[in-house]
């Protein structure tokens, strides 16, 4: 490792030498995707912003895909933490928890657009070198469990998958301005409620 790279590792503040540089590369990637979107995540640009040579990331992430997976994992961890905090409130019934979960998901998609785009790229989900599936699947499993409790008469994984796809589409179309243009709606909330009603039946 060069003196410049060693300095970057120290700057990362982990106190663990090269492990600090690895964390720094991921943190820089998270910052970059937040500011400029997934298309900006080149190894060269991440290295430049981390203050290391363009070949340095290869020491920790042999492929570009592995670095992208590590960055996406941070997004799933953040979204999962928000969802877990809501699901700990067992005073709500499964339908109310599903509604809260749906709102958290759509809000995250709209406020973290670059990270959200990165998180749900199919090619990343096929890569499990860094435990991406273990970070992403619990959220869907929680949704499927709530669907099963709210509607024990349906096949929960399929209904949860359809609801998830619907919410994903709502977030994308609202973010692009398409839903606002087509419907004149002032906010995304009516579409979230409609998606829940469509897949779970009207709230009683």
Task: Describe the model.
The protein is mainly α. It folds into two domains: 3-59, Arc Repressor Mutant, subunit A (Orthogonal Bundle), CATH 1.10.10; 72-200, Tetracycline Repressor, domain 2. The chain is 73% helix and 0% strand. The longest helix is centred in the middle third of the chain and has 24 residues, at 64-87. It starts with a helix and ends with a helix. Mean pLDDT is 85; it is low at 1-17.
Radius of gyration: 20 Å
Q: Note the run of SSEs as H and E.
A: HHHHHHHHHHH
Number of helices: 11
Oligomer: single chain
Can you tell me the overall shape? Answer: elongated
Task: Give the class-level CATH name of the largest domain.
Answer: Mainly Alpha
Report the β-strand fraction as a percent range: under 5%
CATH topology of the largest domain: Tetracycline Repressor, domain 2
Sheet of most strands: none
Instruction: Please tell me the CATH architecture of the largest domain by its name.
Output: Orthogonal Bundle
The residue ranges in which pLDDT falls below 50 over 5 or more consecutive positions are 1-17
CATH superfamily of the largest domain: Tetracycline Repressor, domain 2
Given helix and strand content, the structural type is mainly alpha
Give the helix proportion (percent range): over 70%
Question: How many strand units?
Answer: 0
- Average per-residue pLDDT, rounded, comes to 85
Number of domains: 2
Termini separation: 63 Å
